[in-house]
Amino acid sequence: MNTNSHRREFMARGLLATAGLLVLNPLKNAFAENYAASKAEPDLLARINRAKDPGTLRGLEVGHAPQIKSPDAVKAGEPFEVEVAVGQKLHEMIPTHYIDWIDLYAGEIFLTKMVLTPNLTQPVFKTMLVLRESAALRAVEHCNIHGLWEGTKRIEVV
Questions:
Q1: Cα angle for residues 147, 148, 152 (degrees, 5° grid)
Q2: Which domain holds residue 5?
Q3: In terms of domains, do 72 and 142 share one?
Q4: Do the beta carbons of residue 92 and residue 64 sit within 8 Å?
Q5: What is the C-alpha separation between 148 and 50, in angstroms, rounded?
Q6: 131-140 pLDDT, tens per residue?
Q7: What's the burial of 19, exposed, middle or buried (CB within 10 Å: 0-12/13-18/19+)?
Q8: Fewest CB within a 10 Å sphere: which of 5, 54, 144, 151?
Q9: How many domains are there within the chain?
Q10: Three-state DSSP class for 15?
Q11: 96-126, pLDDT tens digit by residue?
Q12: Residue 86: its H or E element
C-alpha cells in the first residue's frame, strides 16, 4: 500500500467513527434521560395517572392529562364529533419526549387508537362517534417518559 492509500483508509475510518458517534450519541442521551426520569418518578410508571382536579391542572398534569372536547349530551344513534388533545398545553413531540399513542373508550369498550410519531405529528385527533346509551368517554395516552395518563368526560344520551 502506498502513502495515499494509507491516508484514504485512515480518513475513511475516521469519518465512519465520527458518523457512528453522531448517530449513537443522541440515542445514548435519550436512553439516559428516559432512565433518569423513570428512576426519579417511579410512581408515574406504576399506574394510570389522572388529574387530581381536572378543573385545575398542576405540574405534569398540564402537559399530560388528556382533554376531551365533545357535546355534553347527544341524541341516541346520531353521529357527533369528539376531539382528544394531550395536555391543556399540548405535549411536546420531540425524539426524546413524546406521546406514543392515544386510545379512546366508551366505558370499557375500545373505540379507536391514534399512533403518533415524534417531530411529524401532534397529540390531537378528532373522530366521529355514535352512542346508543350514556357513557364516560375515556382517553388513555402513553408518554415515553411519564407513562400512562387518562382523562374522562361523561356523555349523556337523550
A1: 150
A2: 1-40
A3: yes
A4: no
A5: 9
A6: 999 999 999 9
A7: exposed
A8: 5
A9: 2
A10: helix
A11: 999 999 999 999 999 999 999 999 999 999 9
A12: strand 80-86
